[in-house]
């Protein structure tokens, strides 16, 4: 999952990603940021993120993103 | 019967509360559903059939989707991975078809009732230009109250069941309650099923705490609507209805006046609605969060009519941005044209339908479509200019949190909002354009103090009341924005001060409310959408 951190750091290096628990709710990650992130995650982890997954709970923290990625890889 | 009328506040709401309280807990949901239908019937008469029809259809589609999901699970038990994938794909197709039919039917009803005559008018213009002897006939169509609101809620429910965010509801009563809760039937807030239905269904008794909190919220709403918005209505109408006679500073005042009127009116009605919900123990979602401190148009839309924005983001923006075709473009764009171009392209594709629908949702007028496109261009421009802005901030060592940067940003956002609302309120797109152009003709600053403003139906006292009211609302907004009273809110204050505020609110509304002789009862603006 190191590549997840690389993707996030490349997206914005000023954010302490591992510490944040409310990336969406606190607007650290806006909807345009989420779209860019989705494209990167799909390419890096060979997953398909559908509209059903586009909920704040899946993007609010690095841990939530990890869980979503694992769930989609198992699908 | 608007939410600000005596009929609602002193007759309908108390009767509904009493009926609710005296009904056995298990049957309270039924009292709420019946109250909703009576409320609807008192405004739209037999058109209540549309609400009932939408409720039955939404419930049916939900069950149908749930059955397909269940059948899919049964048919995949004990099968090989490849077979499972094929079966899942087949069922996914069927589910998509059911969802599409579900949405299409209720959208068709909305489109027919709301946009048919608009369509006819525009087609006739084209036919006339082509010298066609045949013209389409307009029809007298009655629009059920709140159709634009409950239709969105119904679509949201169907999509949530399809995405498995929620389970399909077997009990028709719960869907009826979700779509027909009377405080929100006319103006929203547009709720998601998971946000409100369980607390509505719970049927908890009325408590003193909820009743007092609800009452204060209702009073606050009346303060905004009756003291500020209904006064400003007189001033705004006087200019917008005879815009040809005015220019420069008067038109600017009308645009600012209308923006303030719309905010006080819509957010005031929301306070009454949320307060009414609170009395029944239901927490409805907030629709406004101090929109005038926004630093850009995107932030403004996260603070203004929040539930509509959330609905568009959840059910249009994200589905479009993760659709196969957009993803394909995104991949192609990032590889061949770079990340920046790909981001702008995806944002444009996903934002366009959102803002087209936003404009159309407000009503069948070109000025509303223009209003949507206006924000589409501004938001897209913001995304395009982001790298330039970031670079500029870095080079100039600008502290983004410093007042010297924040205040001009807020003022710039105000200008964007005022121009948008000028077109939104104008009597047609042509009138809006005329008004906008006339701002730059004969500016005449002196009209601000030469008494011209007292010729629009308001006297000096009215203007002072409006101004003082706005200051009170701004102070309360500041307290909320900085969370100065914490979670407890007004309850944190010393009891005598709290009661002084309650009585102060009541007295201010009674003394300064724009009702009685010399004032016209003003309908709720958003109930017309």
Automatic annotation (TrEMBL), chain A:
InterPro entries to which the protein is assigned, alphabetical: ACP-like_sf, PP-bd_ACP
Origin: domain of life: Bacteria
Domain Carrier: 1-73
Designated name of the protein: Acyl carrier protein
Organism lineage string: Bacteria, Bacillati, Bacillota, Clostridia, Lachnospirales
Automatic annotation (TrEMBL), chain B:
InterPro entries for this protein: Ac/AlaTfrase_AlgI/DltB, AlgI, MB_O-acyltransferase, MBOAT_fam
Gene Ontology terms describing biological process: alginic acid biosynthetic process
Pfam families given in the database record: MBOAT
Membrane topology per record: Multi-pass membrane protein
Origin: domain of life: Bacteria
UniProtKB keywords: Acyltransferase, Cell membrane, Membrane, Transferase, Transmembrane, Transmembrane helix
TM region positions: 7-23, 29-52, 97-116, 141-163, 337-356, 368-388, 463-479, 500-519
Cell location: Cell membrane
GO molecular function, one term: acyltransferase activity
One GO cellular component term: plasma membrane
Principal location listed in the UniProt entry: membrane
Family classification: Belongs to the membrane-bound acyltransferase family.
Protein known as: MBOAT family protein
């Amino acid at each position: 999952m190191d590549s997840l951190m690389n993707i996030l750091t490349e997206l914005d290096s000023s954010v302490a990603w591992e510490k944040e628990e409310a990336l969406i709710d606190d607007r650290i990650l806006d909807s345009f940021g989420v779209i860019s992130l989705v494209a990167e995650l799909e390419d890096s982890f060979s997953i398909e993120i559908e509209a059903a997954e586009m909920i704040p709970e899946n993007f609010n923290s690095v841990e939530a993103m990890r869980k979503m990625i694992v769930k989609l890889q198992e699908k | 019967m608007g939410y600000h009328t005596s009929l609602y506040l002193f007759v309908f709401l108390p009767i509904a509360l009493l009926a609710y309280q005296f009904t056995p807990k298990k049957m309270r949901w039924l009292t709420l559903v019946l109250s909703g239908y009576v409320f609807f019937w008192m405004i739209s008469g037999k058109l209540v059939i549309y609400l009932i029809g939408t409720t039955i259809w939404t419930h049916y589609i939900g069950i149908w989707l749930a059955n397909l999901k269940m059948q899919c699970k049964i048919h995949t038990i004990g099968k090989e991975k490849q077979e499972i994938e094929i079966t899942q794909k087949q069922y996914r197709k069927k589910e998509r078809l059911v969802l599409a039919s579900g949405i299409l039917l209720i959208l068709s009803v909305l489109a027919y009732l709301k946009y048919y005559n608009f369509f006819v008018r525009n087609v006739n213009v084209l036919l006339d230009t082509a010298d066609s002897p045949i013209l389409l006939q307009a029809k007298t169509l009655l629009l059920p109250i709140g159709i634009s609101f409950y239709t969105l809620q119904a679509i949201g429910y169907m999509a949530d069941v399809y995405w498995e965010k929620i389970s399909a509801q077997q009990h028709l009563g719960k869907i009826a309650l979700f779509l027909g809760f009377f405080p929100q039937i006319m103006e929203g807030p547009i709720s998601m099923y998971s946000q409100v239905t369980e607390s509505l269904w719970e049927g908890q008794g009325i408590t003193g705490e909820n009743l007092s909190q609800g009452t204060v919220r209702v009073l606050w709403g009346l303060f905004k609507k009756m003291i500020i918005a209904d006064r400003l209505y007189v001033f705004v109408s006087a200019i917008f209805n005879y815009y040809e006679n005015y220019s420069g500073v008067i038109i600017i005042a009308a645009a600012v006046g209308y923006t303030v009127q719309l905010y006080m009116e819509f957010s005031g009605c929301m306070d009454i609605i949320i307060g009414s919900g609170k009395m029944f123990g239901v927490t409805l979602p907030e629709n406004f969060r101090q929109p005038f401190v926004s630093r850009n148009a995107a932030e403004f839309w996260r603070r203004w009519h929040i539930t509509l924005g959330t609905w568009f983001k959840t059910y249009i923006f994200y589905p479009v941005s993760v659709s196969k075709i957009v993803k394909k473009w995104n991949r192609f764009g990032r590889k061949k044209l770079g990340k920046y171009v790909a981001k702008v392209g995806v944002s444009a594709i996903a934002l366009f339908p959102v803002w087209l629908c936003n404009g159309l949702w407000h009503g069948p007028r070109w000025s509303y479509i223009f209003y949507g496109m206006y924000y589409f261009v501004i938001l897209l421009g913001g995304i395009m200019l982001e790298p330039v802005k970031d670079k500029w901030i870095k080079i100039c060592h600008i502290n983004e949190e410093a007042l010297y940067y924040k205040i001009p940003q807020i003022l710039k956002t105000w200008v964007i909002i005022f121009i948008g609302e000028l077109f939104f309120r104008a009597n047609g797109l042509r009138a809006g354009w005329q008004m906008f152009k006339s701002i730059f003709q004969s500016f005449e600053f002196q009209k601000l103090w030469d008494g011209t403003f007292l010729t629009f139906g308001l006297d000096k006292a009215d203007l002072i009341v409006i101004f003082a009211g706005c200051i009170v609302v701004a102070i309360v907004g500041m307290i909320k924005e900085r969370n100065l009273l914490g979670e407890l809110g007004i309850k944190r204050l010393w009891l005598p001060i709290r009661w002084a505020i309650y009585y102060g609110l009541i007295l201010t509304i009674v003394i300064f409310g724009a009702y009685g002789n010399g004032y016209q009862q003003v309908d709720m603006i958003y109930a017309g959408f």
